[in-house]
Specification:
Helices cover about 40% and strands about 20% of the residues. By secondary structure, the chain is of the alpha/beta class. The longest helix has 17 residues.
Length: about 290
């Protein structure tokens, strides 16, 4: 049965102007399926505002999944994007509880549900689909952690084969460390509080700083990349690698060692190269520091 998301507008679609929304932070690496990990409302507003503005400027239909009251969401979108965006024809709200009721939170049903969104946007003449969701809405849609992980992986696959981009927002004050470690590796890009990561065909690219506060999430991203066949980590944009980050790299090596394979850390600079050398990490078996 065809499902019609909430609040389809009546006026012609608008084009995002250059003045709408803040610019993304320097060094933010965006991918088709991005996890935004933040610890403040301001950071979330900056990133999601810039991301939505970019999606609208490319002619994509924006679906905003929410678990908040309608009036709260409407006020926030108006503040971030300007004007009555819900009357634009390009922005649609999706109630997370309704999505769960229609799909049961089952990954297969959710996949079909999202395929319908893509087809609906195409039939309406949009150039693709952009989906925004936060951790609260995601937990409402898929309360089961195992189903949540499958769903996130399905979104990555859908984004690889369709005109689809997805931004999943996670707040460190409300989303548990276990949840964050579970889901970040399922994304093609991660914008964390101090570091950014992007999975490219030839390498995992890391920038920013890895310390005790984010090392576990970096480890989840690294392990997921290795599991998917990545053997090169490009770190020229990495400014700091603390001891916790070094331990994460070491902990990721045993599967490679068992398979007789090597992980390459490419183009370390400055303090990162120094820590690799003084800790002896650069001489570790099955790890090559190059460039």
């Amino acid at each position: 049965m065809h499902r019609t998301p909430l609040m389809v507008s009546e006026r012609p679609a608008m084009t995002a102007g250059t003045g709408r929304g803040p610019a993304p932070a320097a060094g933010w690496l965006e991918g088709p399926h991005t996890a935004l990990v933040h610890g403040s409302r301001r950071t979330d507003d900056e990133r999601v505002g810039a991301w939505m503005t970019g999606a609208l400027s490319r002619g994509r239909q924006l679906f905003y999944k929410h678990a908040d009251l309608y009036a709260t969401v409407r006020h926030r979108l108006t503040a971030l994007l300007g004007g009555d965006v819900l009357a634009s024809g390009q922005v649609t709200l999706i109630d997370a509880a309704r999505c769960h009721a229609e799909t049961g939170g089952e990954p297969a049903a959710l996949r079909s549900w999202h395929v319908e969104l893509i087809e609906q946007a195409r039939d309406a003449g949009h150039h693709g689909v952009a989906i925004v969701c936060d951790g609260t809405a995601l937990r409402t849609i898929t309360p089961d952690p195992a189903a949540m992980l499958i769903h996130e992986r399905d979104l990555t696959r859908l984004a690889a084969s369709n005109p689809l981009s997805v931004l999943c927002r996670y707040d460190t004050s409300t989303d548990t460390p276990a949840t964050l470690q579970l889901v970040v590796g399922a994304h093609t890009a991660v914008d964390d509080i101090l570091f950014a990561a992007r999975h490219d065909p030839d390498a995992l690219r890391i920038s920013g700083e890895i310390d005790m506060s984010n090392a576990a999430r970096f480890g989840a991203v690294l392990r997921a990349a290795i599991e998917h066949g990545t053997r090169t980590v490009e770190v020229s944009g990495l400014r700091q690698l603390a001891a916790a980050g070094c331990h994460v790299v070491l902990d990721a090596l045993p599967p490679l060692r068992a398979a007789g394979q090597t992980l390459v850390l490419l183009h370390p600079r400055g303090a990162v190269r120094h820590i690799l050398d003084i800790t002896g990490l650069s001489e570790t078996e099955n790890l090559v520091v190059s460039g």
